[in-house]
Amino acid sequence: MLNTPIRSVQWSGTHITLLDQRLLPAKTEFLSLTSIKDVWDAIFKLKVRGAPAIGIAAAYGLALWTQQTTLTNFNDFKSELVKQGAYLESSRPTAVNLFWAVKRILSVVEPVSSVETAKEAILAEAQLIEKEDEDVCRSIGEYAITLFHDEDTLLTHCNAGGIATARYGTALAPFYIAKERGMNLKAYASETRPVLQGARLTAWELQQLGVDVTLITDNMVAHTIKSKGVTAVIVGADRIAANGDTANKIGTYGLALIAKSLGIPFYVAAPLSTIDLDTLSGGEIEIEERHPDEVRTLNGQAITTPDMKVFNPAFDVTPSELITGIITEKGIIQGDYQPKLAKLFL
Ligand SMILES: CSC[C@@H](O)[C@@H](O)C(=O)COP(=O)(O)O
């Protein structure tokens, strides 16, 4: 049993050690990322995925670049660092944690005046981002658990677990806390076509944790909620707009509509680093569209003609009015999201 969850992104002194999430659950393999290009590629290809983990990988990616650069002039170093940050930001558009982490790393260079000091400050900040995410996820779990009772059955979508963060996850954090407290939370995981994060990652992660987890395909959600006594839906987020509209894995919006129709609560669990007050509403969030082959194939096997026309958005936006509560490290907010989200940052 994997009671201490695997760390999906770690700094290893000279490189980044990264769990290759594409291979799970068949193989638990770690990659050594030795250049910023490796980090871009890892984010783009979903070797690392999940909003907070992408942010941590990006922060370490910039730390890696700073350790390797031969630039000695501080102004040249600073302007190249900005370019490297923009390069990493071009890997995936939707999860705001990527942009948040790059911004945070760039900001530590402001008060310093030499390349050597900047290198140290950047690595320390990347390590702090990882450490803080662990604490934040634990806190999300502690707030989340107050919403549930022993023997409740929660349905979750995609993977917002320990491997998508520094530790504990966001939507899966209450399962870790429940285990510690001897409380029995049961789970249904929807498989999450086309990349199957629910089947490959969430079902595996909860099974490792010893949670009673059952896998369903995405089209079984309404029937399962109705027939199996699911008490709540809990998901993570990739970007929460200022008004509470939430971008998360494709399928989340449909889940929220089903939850509302069947009268069960729909919760979003996310850290403040996923809340983007500069994005006023969900309509402003850029939705990543991925390669059509993800839909044309299933586990590497073609399921359509090779030229089948495909629409493959990786995320959708759930309007805030369908969200029962947003669980953050600073507490749970319910309704009236605009002022309440803004207040979290004061
Ligand atoms: C704590 S992870 C929250 C979200 O990032 C997660 O729910 C999600 O949508 C991940 O999408 P992915 O495409 O796998 O990166």
TrEMBL record:
Taxonomic source organism: Halalkalibacter alkalisediminis
Family affiliation: Belongs to the EIF-2B alpha/beta/delta subunits family. MtnA subfamily.
InterPro entries the record matches: IF-2B-related, IF-M1Pi, IF_2B-like_C, Initiation_fac_2B_a/b/d, M1Pi_N, NagB/RpiA_transferase-like
Residues involved in substrate binding: 49-51, 92, 197, 248-249
Active site: 238
Pfam family of the protein (one): IF-2B
Keywords: Amino-acid biosynthesis, Isomerase, Methionine biosynthesis
Domain of life per record: Bacteria
Pathway of action: Amino-acid biosynthesis; L-methionine biosynthesis via salvage pathway; L-methionine from S-methyl-5-thio-alpha-D-ribose 1-phosphate: step 1/6
Enzyme Commission number, as recorded: 5.3.1.23
Site, as annotated: Transition state stabilizer: 158
Name of the protein: Methylthioribose-1-phosphate isomerase
One GO MF term attached to the UniProt entry: S-methyl-5-thioribose-1-phosphate isomerase activity
Swiss-Prot/TrEMBL catalytic activity: 5-(methylsulfanyl)-alpha-D-ribose 1-phosphate = 5-(methylsulfanyl)-D-ribulose 1-phosphate
Quaternary structure (record): Homodimer.
Gene name of this polypeptide: mtnA
Chain's role: Catalyzes the interconversion of methylthioribose-1-phosphate (MTR-1-P) into methylthioribulose-1-phosphate (MTRu-1-P).
